[in-house]
Amino acid sequence: MRAVVLVEGERHELQEVPTLEPAPGELRIRVEAAGICGTDLSIMHGHFPPGRGRPLILGHEFAGTVDAVGDGVDGFAPGDRVAADPNVYCGECEWCRRGAYNLCEQWAAVGITLPGALAEYLCLPARLAVRLPETLSMTAGALIEPLSCAIHAFQYADVARDASTVIFGGGMMGLTCLALANQLGHQVTVVEIHEARRRKALDMGAARVVESAAELHQPFDYVMEATGVPAVVQEAFSWIRTRGTYLQLGLPPADTEITIRPLDINNRELRIVGSFSLADAYPASADMIGSVAPALEQLVTHRFGLDQFDEALAAMARPDALKVHLEPHTHH
Ligand SMILES: [Zn+2]
Ligand SMILES: [Zn+2]
C-alpha cells in the first residue's frame, strides 16, 4: 500500500509499504478521509512526542471502511463504515481508571507512535472503533477526533449553559469550540486577525467577531485561548470575568512565560484549566457529530490525494485553510 512516511527529521516521502494484516482483536480500515493538524506539524518538528522514532506513518484523525477483521473481533464486518479513537490506552493504570486515557502510562497512538492514517490502510484495536451512520460523510467521520478534543476541554472545564464566551483564534479548534458554545446557548465573541476566518465564525453563529482584543469591552465568563501565541495568551488572561474560567487550548511554545496576578485569582475566584487531547470523549463526540456535522464540514477547506502531502502542508500554512484532509482512495 502507499503511505506518507516520516523518514528522518521532517523528511517525508510517499512510500510503497507492506499492507499489515490485522492482529487478533484488530480491524484493518481502508482510509477514506484523514485530517492533518498542528499535532502532525509538532511531530514533524520533533517537539512531540518526546523521544519517539522514525519511520512513522502520520495521521490520527480519520474515517474509512472496515476491510478485514482479526480473530476474535465481534460486532464489525468488512464493509462497515467506521472511525476510531487513535489513542491506544491500557485501561488499567491510575489515569485510565480515572478516564484520563490521554495521560495513560502506556499511552500509544495511531499516527503518533504507531502507523497512522495517511495511508491506504491502517490497523487498530476494534474496541477503539465506532460505526458511522449511513447519513454521515467520511469527511464528518474524520472530524470526530478534533471535535472530541473540544468536547473533552468543555467537559473538563465544566462549561455551563447560557454564558458569555470569548474565543481567541478562529482556527479549527477555535471554531469547533464556537460550535459547542453555540449549542450551550453562549453569546460568543471570536477574536481573529484573518478576515476569512472571521467571516467563517460569523457564518457559524458567532454573536460578534473582532480583529483584535482592543475592540473588546467587557470581560467574559469563559475565555478560550486557541492560538497558542504567547502575546495572545497574555492578553487573553485580562478578559476573564469574576468567577470566570480560562481555558488553554492553543499550544504555546514550551518556554512561554506570562505574567499573572495570583491575588486576582483569589479575589475574583478565577478558574484556570488546561486540556490535552481527548481523554474519554471520543464516544460522546461520535454521538454528537451528526448534530454539528453541517457546521464542521464547512471547516474542511482543502482536500488532497496521498501523493499531495507537500501541497497539503503548504495549504495548511495559508490563513484561509482550516482543516486539510487527505483522501487516499479518491482521485484528486
Ligand atoms: Zn489532530
Ligand atoms: Zn493506562
From TrEMBL:
InterPro entries noted in UniProt: ADH-like_C, ADH-like_N, ADH_Zn_CS, ER, GroES-like_sf, NAD(P)-bd_dom_sf, Zn_alcohol_dh
Pfam families: ADH_N (PF08240), ADH_zinc_N (PF00107)
Domain Enoyl reductase (ER): 9-326
Superkingdom of origin organism: Bacteria
Entry keyword set: Metal-binding, Oxidoreductase, Zinc
Stored PROSITE patterns: ADH_ZINC
One term of GO molecular function: zinc ion binding
Cofactor: Zn(2+)
Database matches in Gene3D superfamilies: Medium-chain alcohol dehydrogenases, catalytic domain, NAD(P)-binding Rossmann-like Domain
Keyword Oxidoreductase: yes
Protein family: Belongs to the zinc-containing alcohol dehydrogenase family.
Protein name per the record: 2-desacetyl-2-hydroxyethyl bacteriochlorophyllide A dehydrogenase
Organism of origin: Tessaracoccus oleiagri
Organism lineage string: Bacteria, Bacillati, Actinomycetota, Actinomycetes, Propionibacteriales
